Amino acid sequence: MSVQAPATLFDQDAVRRAVDTVLTDFLATQTHSALDRSLPQQAAEALSGFLGAGGKRIRPVLCVAGWQAAGGTGTLDPAIRAAASLEMFHSFALIHDDIIDASDTRRGQPTVHGQTSTHAAILIGDLVLVFADQLLHGAGLTPAQLDAVLPIANALRADTIYGQYLDISHAGQPSADPGPALTIAQYNIAKYTIEGPLLLGAALTGDGDAIRATLTACGMAVGEAFQLRDDLLGIFGNPTHTGKPCLDDLREGKTTVLMALALQNADGPQRRVLHHHVDNPHPIDAGADQIRTVLTDTGARTTVEEMITERRQSALTALDTANLPTHITAVLRSLAVSATSRTI
Amino acid sequence: MSVQAPATLFDQDAVRRAVDTVLTDFLATQTHSALDRSLPQQAAEALSGFLGAGGKRIRPVLCVAGWQAAGGTGTLDPAIRAAASLEMFHSFALIHDDIIDASDTRRGQPTVHGQTSTHAAILIGDLVLVFADQLLHGAGLTPAQLDAVLPIANALRADTIYGQYLDISHAGQPSADPGPALTIAQYNIAKYTIEGPLLLGAALTGDGDAIRATLTACGMAVGEAFQLRDDLLGIFGNPTHTGKPCLDDLREGKTTVLMALALQNADGPQRRVLHHHVDNPHPIDAGADQIRTVLTDTGARTTVEEMITERRQSALTALDTANLPTHITAVLRSLAVSATSRTI
User: Fold this and answer.
1) Pair (B107, B190) in one structural domain
2) Residue A161 lies in a domain
3) Same domain, A120 and A210
4) Is ipTM over 0.95?
5) Which family does the record assign (chains A, B) (predicted)?
6) Of B82, B114, B140, which marks where a domain is finished?
């Protein structure tokens, strides 16, 4: 495989296909090697099903976009392999998240721990994190590229796990302070999903520092807005579109900016409605309208919409004032708009 | 810190102290950085207590021994830092193992999941695995060293996790075939604890291939013998010396060569004694003597002792025929003898 970087267009689908080819080949090699050594193949098999069942590959796409944004040209291969390692890391994170959230399904299939056991899924997740290393270390990077990329990859990983840790630490403890929820969004989504992949890709050119500030400004703003939109969709979205049961965040006692703002402004009866549903792990959906009314009447919904608009605007301004290649600016503008205004 | 490699002696205590200094400094930096960014410090704190509570640092010692065995000279620093990353990986493995084994204590202290929660400990373990990467990638290795070391580190990690996976897959399913138990010992102990650290250290010299066969022959033999000795001590050892409750392996339904050999040769009543204790998660200690009698009368105990002797001998032969520096041969000989004849 040798995909050339197109000079003036960014083909997201081609990136996804190339990344999936790398992942499929890697897993085939792992399965083969496990078989040769009489080792269990369940890990590679479970992962294969997991990766084959969907996923938007947003991190790999952003990694390749970051590489091109920083002036990357020539063969895409190293960028694609580094991007594939991000998707592998994401698989690790989801496998362990699903254990922690006690989720039954992921991408319409039973979760890995549901297919095996909690203990097996802990180990499969661990192995997948090692696979992510193997993909990155075997990406054919030059020593200079490796030197630039490893600290960014490690920071992205540590930040993601810190974000998860913060998330579970605050779960079930509704607070009227939106600070923690925003910090979680920054680590768990903005750095992990948007800024980190962009910076990792940019670092591959050895010249990532020049546009680091632009990618960070754009990535963090879009990432935060993405999470805020997700919080709104979790309450006001259509479950058949979002693929996520309505009010799931509330059921899990998730710390969100939306909830914090509502608690901040709620009067006594409104506060009781919100607390009732947080304290009740399986609220009946009949309560959904009551909650929506409180979130709307307290102004929380409007404030969150304003926060999204501000962040989208600040991302677009960062892009407008930077001197990125036109086709990359177009990709990032389109991401900033779609991630923050999506309705599904 | 700059420790010079002594030309003719190998000071294990100095290696342990230097490794502990690297680990302590690393964790202090992590705690500080988490504090600066308002991130939870529990991970670094839990790990600090964990590392401070003991541990023999056998992997770091072997890593530095492997480096010297392959002709490493000059400053010990990169070898010490790579060695510290092995100890960090070991901490990760123990944190997740303790969850899987539902262990209450580790090194005389509550386990990490006991101090926090299962979910927090999954994430703390994950973070510690990233810390291991950060230590290795920041060990000041040259591009050539990194190139040689990363594939070995990744293989060691994957093999260890495969070994754990095999272990839990076979737990509670007593078999008269010693094959799986020996495979688990190879991955979970021999490769992870002995061969892998030796090879990693040797790779640091860029000239590890020359003595790879010797280190593998010696490391695998000692590692298997170590596990076989451990199995015997788990049944016949003195719990006050081993620090492990007697018959714990049996209670956990652990797959051991000792048990498989006994089942292979047991008659009906003997088999019933063995199965009774595997099926009963909390056998009373009064049954211990009955089990010891069966393991002895079936010849399993003697066969395992013979397997240990064979492996010790083959390790010593591998060392005798290799042309390693005298002081390193002495260290490895002493390890081969102590690991296989230890009574505590």
Assistant:
1) no
2) no
3) no
4) no
5) Belongs to the FPP/GGPP synthase family.
6) B140
> Is A133 in the B-facing interface, judged by CB distances under 8 Å?
yes
Give the model's confidence band at B213: pLDDT under 50 very low, under 70 low, under 90 confident, else very high.
very high
Chain B CA closest to residue A34: B162
Angle ∠(B282,B287,B288) on CA atoms, nearest 5: 95
pLDDT value of position B331: 85
Cβ(A164)–Cβ(A103) under 8 Å?
no
Give per-residue pLDDT as tens, B109-138.
Answer: 899 999 999 999 999 999 999 999 999 999
Total tally of structural domains belonging to chain B: 2
Distance, CA of A3 to CA of B50 (rounded, Å): 47
Q: Please check whether residues A191 and A307 belong to one and the same domain.
A: yes
Residues 6+ apart with CB under 8 A from B29: none
Residues B312 and B177 in one domain: yes
| Interatomic CA distance for residues B226 and B189, integer angstroms | 8
Contact criterion met (CB < 8 Å) for B161 and A39:
no
Residue A31 CB contacts under 8 Å (≥ 6 apart), including other chains: A41, A44, A45, A48
Confirm if A332 and A235 have CB atoms less than 8 A apart.
no
Structure tokens at A115: 């297919």
Same domain, B30 and B174: no
Q: A99 and A39 in one domain?
A: yes
Q: Which of B112, B140, B168 is the last residue of a domain?
A: B140
Nearest CA in chain A to B143: A143
Query: Considering only residues 13 to 72 of chain A, which have any Cβ-Cβ distance to chain B shorter than 8 Å?
Result: 34, 38-40, 42-43
pLDDT of residue A210: 81
User: Confidence class of residue B4 from pLDDT cuts 50, 70 and 90?
Assistant: low
Q: A123–B161: do the CB atoms touch at under 8 Å?
A: yes
pLDDT at B99 over 90: yes
Whether B296 and B168 share a structural domain: yes
Distance in angstroms (rounded) separating the CA atoms of residues A292 and A283: 14
Whether residue A1 is contained in a domain is answered as: no
Instruction: Give the pLDDT confidence of B22-42 residue by residue, as tens digits.
Output: 999 999 999 998 888 878 888
The band of A242, judged by pLDDT with boundaries at 50, 70 and 90, is low
**Contact residues on chain B for A157, CB-CB shorter than 8 A:** 130, 133
Write down the mean pLDDT value for chain A: 89
Using CA atoms, how far apart are residues B248 and B235, in angstroms rounded to an integer?
8
Task: Tell whether B35 is covered by a domain.
Answer: yes
Sequence-distant (6+) residues with CB within 8 A of A331 are: A10, A12, A65
What length does chain A have? 344
Phi, psi at residue A110, to the nearest 5°?
-60, 145
Query: In this predicted structure, what is the pLDDT of residue A158?
Result: 95
Cβ-count burial A212-242 (b if 16+ within 10 Å, e if not): bebbbbbbbbbbbbbbbbbbbbbbbbeeeeb
Angle separating helix axes B257-265 and B178-185, nearest 10 degrees: 170
DSSP string, A144-163: HHHHHHHHHHHHHHHHHHHH
The answer to whether B165 contacts A134, with C-beta atoms less than 8 Å apart, is no
- Domain with A103, as residue range(s), is 9-140
A&B contacts, CB < 8 Å: 114
The CATH number linked to A123 is 1.10.600.10
Let me know whether B103 and B236 are in one domain: no
Say if CB A204 and CB A141 are below 8 A apart.
yes
Domain-embedded: residue B118 = yes
